[in-house]
Specification:
448 residues; alpha/beta; five-stranded mixed beta sheet; 47% helix; flat
């Protein structure tokens, strides 16, 4: 596939361009591209007229005629369409094109110079089939990294010039001494807009010892003081300990910040004379941070099952599963845990129902004569009914009942199946912990 240099006049549109249906000629192909792209074609023309061609892109072409030489643009039809309109605006007289779009191309054609883009860098294909792999790679983003990998939200924000939210995230992730599990909680789903809203509020910044100048967050505080509140806020947002909806108004934001507590609020009396942006604070200053010891938080655990959980499994097989759930580390085994927690729930419910004389099958189907197995939500409802009759309040089991019907819960059948069969569905540690917390009251009654 040799590289060749071509002129605009050497190129023709692809009548079988996947963007459009088959065209019987160049004029029809151009008309269909205009109809498909609309104002996006004007934006592309403006970019080419002002900046030239993207140096990272090449056209893929297929030779269709020797005398005169002509090449079909297998990849690059939008650019070829723009070239045709800019170099020969008269062609628009035979097209159905909106008046504002026509005026835009006439204006751009007056300043466009072919010499700004010619010779055009192209790769010549031996056949249309030879280009299929590259076209698929180009236009179907992903391919496990073989193609262009779209920037995630944080990458886009960094490229845009590191707004305050990214400045804080980088400080917290790189310098605030996060544990591995805390690092893992900051995913691409992190609510950057909420953090941005907090940091844009002048009253909130004053509470945190921050100011804003020349696009950067600044402070007079030493590293250990400024890191305390920012670390807490980022982790609260990442783990959803504070809900986005509760940080919409100034009063709510100030109430949240003031409620961080003495361990997390900065000592503003330690403000130094020199104002520094966050990225100007030396790394060595952060390495000296000594974190105050805090009381153990029962929700902050390394294993799924909290220590001292009063669940006493008596069935041998189910007890083995429970032992693994108690010993596997969330940071290392979330995929295994995501499967085991669902299995443990279903086997526990099955054991309870059978012990209480309840059939795990549905009634016989009169047509097929077969007995189908009951689904988990049905068995769970029957288990709860029995426990309520034994005197346990119904509210005791509301969380686990909701979990089984919540499509985002590891207990839900669809998500559980995706954990098993979808290689792109990764369990989230905080979701697994929440699922166990919701189900534990039920487990305690099934296995007293």
């Amino acid at each position: 596939m040799p590289e060749i240099k071509l002129k605009i006049a050497d190129l023709v549109l692809d009548n079988d361009n996947p963007r459009i249906t088959h065209s019987d000629g160049q004029q029809e192909a151009l008309q269909k591209i205009i109809k498909d792209q609309k104002t996006k074609l004007v934006k592309l023309a403006e970019s080419i007229a002002e900046h030239g061609l993207n140096p990272m892109d090449r056209l893929l072409v297929l030779r269709v005629n020797s005398k005169p030489e002509r090449f079909i643009a297998i990849e690059g039809n939008r650019r070829v369409a723009v070239f045709k309109l800019l170099t020969n605006p008269a062609v628009m007289s035979g097209l159905d094109i909106p008046a504002p779009m026509k005026r835009a191309f006439e204006r751009l054609s007056a300043t466009f110079k072919k010499s700004d883009v010619e010779p055009l860098p192209c790769f010549e294909l031996s056949s249309r089939e030879a280009g299929r792999y590259w076209l698929n790679l180009r236009h179907n983003i992903g391919h496990d990294g073989a193609s262009v990998d779209n920037w995630k939200t944080l990458a886009k924000r960094r490229f845009e010039g590191k707004p305050p939210s990214v400045q804080v995230l980088e400080l917290v992730e790189e310098r605030a001494g996060l544990t591995a599990s805390e690092q893992a909680s900051i995913t691409d789903r992190f609510p950057t807009s909420t953090l941005e809203r907090l940091l844009e509020n002048r009253a909130v910044r004053q509470e945190l010892g921050l100011d804003f100048a020349a696009g950067k967050l600044t402070t007079k505080l030493p590293a250990n003081e400024i890191a305390k509140p920012l670390r807490k806020i980022v982790l609260d947002l990442a783990t959803k300990k504070v809900q986005v909806g509760k940080l919409m108004k100034t009063d709510n934001m100030l109430a949240y910040v003031s409620g961080l507590g003495a361990d997390h609020l900065p000592d503003l009396s330690k403000a130094q004379g020199k104002v520094r942006s966050l990225d100007e604070i030396p790394v060595s200053e952060f390495s000296k941070i000594k974190r105050a010891r805090r009381k153990p938080d029962p929700s902050d655990r390394k294993e799924l099952v909290p220590k001292g959980c009063p669940v006493n499994v008596t069935d041998n097989r189910i007890a083995e599963i429970y032992k693994e759930l108690r010993t596997l580390k969330l940071a290392d085994s979330r995929n295994a845990i995501s499967v085991l927690i669902r299995v443990f729930l279903e086997l526990s419910v099955d054991h309870f129902l059978e012990t209480n004389g309840v059939d795990l099958h549905l009634p016989v189907d009169p047509k097929s004569g077969k007995k189908a197995w009951k689904k988990l939500d049905k068995k769970l409802a029957e288990t709860v009914d029995i426990l309520i009759r034994l005197g346990v309040p119904a509210a005791h089991f509301a969380p686990v009942t909701r979990s089984v019907s919540d499509k985002n819960s590891p207990m839900h059948t669809d998500l559980f199946h995706r954990y098993v069969h979808d290689r792109f569905q990764t369990p989230v540690t905080t979701d697994l912990v929440a699922a166990w917390n919701n189900a534990q009251p039920l487990f305690e009654k099934i296995w007293p």
